[in-house]
Write a structure and sequence with these properties.
heterodimer, A: mainly beta, 7-stranded mixed sheet, 4-stranded antiparallel sheet, B: 4-stranded antiparallel sheet, 12 strands, about 55% strand
């Protein structure tokens, strides 16, 4: 299998506070993890790509100082939304790849619903 | 640059009818193509993938898709729709040599009528 978990599954926070979302690969080592953002009834938009032990690569238009990504181990990546505002409310989904040659599949987590009040 | 176009934001079929969800891609190199399904408030589940092997790909839950290079298409089909197939479906493309980065289509919501 290739299971990816996210924690928490949903979170409500007040405007101005920071929220950390964890993404874990449970039964494999993930060399690369991705963070996506999905607005209601819209597609997934890639926010950043992170590789274990190195700085994340952010997509154009994504504020790296606002969305802090840490990929400290081969099984854990975290996304911290700093000084959250209501417009940051969204569904955040992570995915991971095994990094094996010829395996181009991403395994997705169940998502985290963030609501900023 | 790669891109994905899913024709039809909503598709409605009767239970037992054929399901056809359309996906066209643009890629400068042979692509890898994927179909994912998403149920409300959940992550994405892989239905099937094309990675340059057989052009007709069979996936889970009775779905299949055919890679047609001449038409730059990768349409998803299922012979007989089930109520449990009602969900959002996403087509995605990844180019070899671009790491594992995906580009997703805008999604198609499948409605199944009893």
């Amino acid at each position: 299998g290739a299971v990816v978990s996210q924690h928490p599954s949903w979170v409500i926070c007040k405007s101005g506070t920071s929220v950390k979302i964890e993404c874990r690969s449970l039964d494999f080592q993930a060399t690369t993890m991705f963070w996506y953002r999905q607005f209601p009834k819209q597609s997934l938009m890639l926010m950043a790509t992170s590789n274990e032990g190195s700085k994340a690569t952010y997509e154009q238009g994504v504020e790296k100082d606002k969305f802090l990504i840490n990929h400290a181990s081969l099984t854990l990546s975290t996304l911290t939304v700093t000084s959250a505002h209501p417009e940051d409310s969204s569904f955040y989904i992570c995915s991971a790849t095994k990094g094996l040659a010829g395996v181009y599949e991403q395994y997705f987590g169940p998502g985290t619903r963030l609501t900023v009040t | 640059a790669q891109s994905v176009t899913q024709l039809g934001s909503h598709v409605s079929v009767s239970e037992g009818a054929l399901v056809l969800l359309r996906c066209n891609y643009s890629s400068s190199v042979p692509p890898y193509l994927f179909w994912y399904v998403q149920y409300p408030n959940q992550g994405l589940q892989l239905l099937l993938k094309y990675t340059s092997a057989a052009t007709l790909v069979k996936g889970i839950n009775g779905f299949e898709a055919e890679f047609k290079k001449s038409e730059t298409s990768f349409h998803l089909t299922k012979p007989s729709a089930h109520m449990s197939d009602a969900a959002e479906y996403f087509c995605a493309v990844s180019e070899k040599g671009q790491g594992f980065s995906f580009i997703f289509g805008k999604g198609t919501r499948l409605l199944v009528k009893p």
